[in-house]
Amino acid sequence: MGRNMANNTRRIYQLDQNLTPEQRIVTFAKCSRSAEPFDKIAKELTDEKAAKFNQRYVVAFGHLSVAEHAAFNIAMEDVSILATKIIEDNRLGSFTERSTRYQVYDKNSYYKPDSIMNSKYADVYGKAGNYLFEIYEKLYPIVCEDMKKNYPKTNDNIKTYDTMIKGKTCDVVRYILPVATLTSLGMTLNARNLIYAINKMITSPLGEMQDIGNDLKKIAEKSIPTIANMIKPIKYLAETLPELQKTVSRISFNQTDIKQEPVTLVDYDVNADDKLVTALIYRFLSQSYESIKNKVSKMSQIQKEDIIDQALKNRSAMDQPLRELEHIYYTFDILMDYGAFRDIQRHRMCSQTNQLVTCDHGYEIPDKIRELGVEKKYISAMDTSREAYEKIKKDFPQEAQYIVAFAYKKRTLFTWNLRELHHFISLRSRPAGHVSYRLIANQVYDELAKVHPLLAKYINVVKIK
To answer: Distance (Å, rounded) from C-alpha 326 to C-alpha 153?
Structure first.
């Protein structure tokens, strides 16, 4: 019997795109209890029947996994860059953001928090924001002309050349932009994660996040009205975080003992080589992990290296490593300028713990700024940002983040598995990337290579000379 004849009952098809999001949720949810074909289930649904089902099983019983079958493509415009980083902290989603590397930002296009603008700091905030954009606009043509001299036109496409020059110029002047800069963000989330994201936003201490959360709530109420009943502030977060902060504030820390290394490996799997070999063998046997691990511990180093080599040597640049690499972890404390953070934070398939955006750790000065003799203007922008931040944070520690310039450094704790590090290091060390995050990717690789040289040698890294 031919292959097709043996499987002639198989049906693979796309659901009717005219179904509402709630109907799609119910269509797939019912298959766990009904043997009817999906299209028949869908045909029998009405808005009323879908709402009744979702109220009973999704809302009342909390069977939220089925809500993942409804997806939303949401466009956000004129939201602050600070807000986009909070939104993108929802790891199970897809995000595309307006670039600061390839687009020039307009003067005064920055977010002004009501809490600050209705306070005694309104003038301080406004003057600082305006001044940062003033310096950004003044330095742009200076840097741009220098880039044209260093990269003269060839016979290449003029549009391509202009785009290249703009990108190289923006890479320098973007350090001056405040975190309040308004941007655009495209977001794709399923219904389950949209509800959770909204709940986190309306629980946020930032007014902008609450406003964005309420705008998204209106979209949810229109598209998934029954499931939108689950939108509410998260009491656990609202109570726990302030209580933890109060407790921490009572503990004395030595503020002068602040490390300035960009990348510090603070924790990792000490026996990663054996752990990876054990995981690689595991799928081909029926023995327990412990028994395989004991056997691996008695293997020669050559045997272990051979197994790891076989697992990774045939990878092309587009191949993801085997999932066994996910069992190996590394935790890094990274201190980077906000521009670099903005790109590195997008690697959400890891665990991230963020500190607030501050001026506590100083700022970066691009080499090109020194080379062109405009360091004084640049420093005046940084000083203006810091002075405004220091004044505002006394009464508005959360909102004070908005006026911090991209050049200032911030800390984030990242825990990556080895598989994700293959992706992060290879992508973020490429020559086309911004030097700030290329340096971080290189240093992450170097730290990994110090403790696990055998595992590091299979990672594709482009070293900065």
So the answer is: 46
d(CA 70, CA 50) in angstroms, rounded, equals 13
- CA distance linking residue 458 with residue 456, whole number of Å: 5
Q: What is the pLDDT of residues 17-66, one digit of tens each?
A: 899 999 999 999 988 888 899 999 999 999 999 899 888 888 887 788 89
CA end-to-end span of the chain: 62
Query: Which residue ranges form the domains of the chain, and what is each CATH number?
Result: 12-69 (no CATH), 71-244 (3.30.1360.170), 270-325 (no CATH)
Question: What is the number of other CB atoms lying within 10 angstroms of the CB of residue 78?
Answer: 9
Phi and psi angles of residue 148, each rounded to the nearest 5 degrees, phi first: -65, -35
**Which amino acid is located at 96 in the chain?**
T
User: What are the structure tokens assigned to 69, written together?
Assistant: 């079958």
**What does the alpha-carbon distance between residue 190 and residue 72 come to, in Å, rounded to a whole number?**
6
- For 144-162, b/e burial (b = at least 16 CB within 10 A) is bebbeeeeeeeeeeeeebe
Residue given tokens 């043997």 in the structure block: 35
Nearest in space to 342 (alpha carbons), one of 115, 150, 80: 80
Structure tokens at 361: 């750790």
Q: Looking at 224-345, list the stretches that DSSP marks H as alpha helix, in order from N- to C-terminal side.
A: 235-249, 272-282, 289-297, 301-312, 338-344
Would you call 395 helix, strand, or coil by DSSP?
coil
Strands (E), 339-460: 351-354, 409-417
Q: What is the pLDDT of residues 194-206, one digit of tens each?
A: 999 999 999 999 9
